[in-house]
Amino acid sequence: xSTQKKSVVSIVKGTGANSMVEExxxxxxxxxxxxxxxxxxxxxxNAGHPFPPETSINTSPAVVSAVIKELRKxxxxxxxxxxxxxxxxxxxxxxEVSGIGKAAEEAGVDKIIDIKREKDLIKIPIRDAVSDITSxxxxxxxxxxxxIVSVPILKTHINMVFTNALKNMKGxxxxxxxxxxxxxxxxAAMMDLWSVIKADLTIxxxxxxxxxxxxxxxxxxxxxxxxxxxxxxxxxxxxxxxxGLDVDFVPYFEAANERGIGNFVEENIVIRGRTIKEVFKQxxxxxxxxxxxxxxxxxxxxxxxxxxxxxxxxxxxxxxxALGEYEKNAxxxxxxxxxxxxxxxxxxxxxxxxxxxxxxxxxHGIFCGGCPPGECFPGWSIIDRKGITLPEDAGGSDAxxxxxxxxxxxxxxxxxxxxxxxxxxxxxxx
Length: 430
Description:
Number of domains: 2
Structural class: alpha/beta
Shape: globular
CATH superfamily of the largest domain: LarA, N-terminal domain
Radius of gyration: 21 Å
Mean pLDDT: 94
Helix content: 25-40%
CATH architecture of the largest domain: 3-Layer(aba) Sandwich
């Protein structure tokens, strides 16, 4: 029997965000036991991209509103909503298009801050850094706040398997650090970040989480749940079990364990409210577990590859099909992971090296760096036959966002058909 201190996670299923958030916190002792009277509270949603609520790319405005209203019951001095959108995106635009900014204002938030525009930053060293990030600049208001309440939406995520509580805090840094985190071991970098800045409460939006090839290639799925807890690792692990995702596929659970951050082992998590069994629904996560023999027209070597690069490559292979580029580039050799030596007789222009694990071979083929690389960069490296590691390699951030937007429309139509076929097959087999 484990003697480790247990983490408490609440699961609520319902139809109204206000009542669901209130109930979720009641299972944790109630909002007045979680938030100090007269404190400064920072609410951190997931508003990384300028897409509307129905896409499930950002946290539901209704959930953000419900959280702010519930926090107000604890009589804090100030409630601040803060975000730093994805690299190349404008935070205020993302808050506007997502509906989160308006919802927060109508719920009575005191202030909305774009972390990217903050100038009053504090340099914080990261002791015993596991990644290459040894110090980080964070906004003073965030460091000095008594409470940080993370309000993520659960999404599949092709280069981190999924995103929810732990990954949401990556939106507390500015673009320079955000990008640097992708150039080192991202899972380790996330835990290095958590070692210096922590959310002390997570309220996760699983009302309409995204399945498929998230974050931008995700499709909303009806789930109707809110999950809350003080331990973000336990929240994430519980959410994984609710959607049928094996925690062993998720790289940052072990990274969190090595850092001593939270519990992901099921026996160390106490569930209150609904049980996992009561709310369980297997979401469609097509980039896991099928192997690379489903793309026989390509020579794929994945020796020692992590789940991040495996999922990323699967996404890009399907994207090649959606864009009509799959057959054009058939015969290419793709390497991910820790391969010890290169296959013989491969033309350098047909050798695609994906991820920092292949960096030692970069002079022998087309190298797409990163740990993991940018979401679209492996596919573009195959199509363009040139290495794309930085946005500048693809024409700069504006060009990258524009190309991603063009690709996205075609890809969403393609994956919607794939999902329909998947669920039809599941229904026939059941």
